[in-house]
Specification:
With 249 residues, the protein is mainly alpha-helical. The protein has nine helices and four strands. The protein is globular, with a radius of gyration of 18 Å.
Length: 249
């Protein structure tokens, strides 16, 4: 039973945080179909960072460095979607799907290059990301993810930035008429989406992969249920938990 709760929470946090990242992009007017690809690219970056860090490094520094590298990788990859959708006016669905396919291919090539076995698997240690409550072993990103859910709601609905972001998505012409830079706000939404997905999702994904092995194909297909939660952060926890329970069972 404890094992079921553990993996349900881990999968649920993964889907919830992806949904929160997509929510910011969605409200800016850009449908971020490339969330799965961003997640895969950041996953590879995060795991490679873990494998290269010294074994005697402080757990805090291990977590911090891997999270920052993953976030940077997510921001850079999400820039491709932002440039294609905002500047080139490309179809967002087609562009996002293409980035998802490209990300999987890139990740497999990189993982095979750095893998000792020649397969798309990398050895890593997830101990810096774990803590125990009684007999239940959880990731530090479970409570952090819940806090981030609350912060996302406040930022989106209680701040000037959130109001302008939603205005650019709902009525960009009206936002532009009052002096809001729609391009700038949409870039902010997409980049925030990439940055938000990676710092917390990547380590959580590492923790739900069995046998301490990162397998690129295991990341694909994990994000689809979160697309239904991108409009509002309020259902962004119960929904992923239901999807996570189904996946675990």
């Amino acid at each position: 039973m404890l094992l079921l709760i553990k993996y349900t929470l881990l999968y649920g946090i993964v889907l919830m945080l992806v949904a929160l990242g997509g929510m910011f992009s969605e409200h800016s007017g850009i449908i971020n179909i490339a969330l799965e690809g961003i997640m895969v690219i950041g996953g590879v970056a995060g795991v490679l960072t873990l494998t290269m860090l010294p074994a005697d490094m402080s757990p805090f520094l291990v977590v911090l460095i891997s999270v920052l590298v993953a976030a940077l990788a997510g921001i850079v990859y999400s820039l491709l979607l932002a440039f294609a959708s905002i500047n080139l006016k490309a179809d967002q669905t087609i562009g996002g799907t293409a980035l998802n396919l490209l990300a999987t291919a890139i990740a497999v090539v990189i993982a095979k290059y750095f893998s000792d076995s020649g397969s798309a698997k990398l050895n890593y240690s997830n101990k810096p990301f774990l803590f125990s409550i009684g007999g239940l072993e959880l990731s530090i990103f479970v409570p952090l993810g819940i806090v981030l859910l609350i912060i996302s709601y406040v930022v989106l609905y209680k701040t000037r930035f959130g109001l302008r972001l939603r205005a650019c998505g709902e009525h960009p012409q009206a936002a532009d008429s009052v002096g809001i830079n729609v391009y700038k706000m949409r870039y902010a939404g997409v980049l925030l989406s990439g940055a938000l997905v990676l710092p917390l999702v990547v380590p959580a994904v590492l923790l739900v992969v069995p046998d301490d092995l990162f397998d690129v194909p295991l990341l694909t297909g994990a994000v689809s249920p979160s697309a239904l939660l991108e409009e509002n952060p309020s259902p962004a926890m119960p929904g992923p938990l239901v999807a996570a329970t189904r996946s675990v069972l």
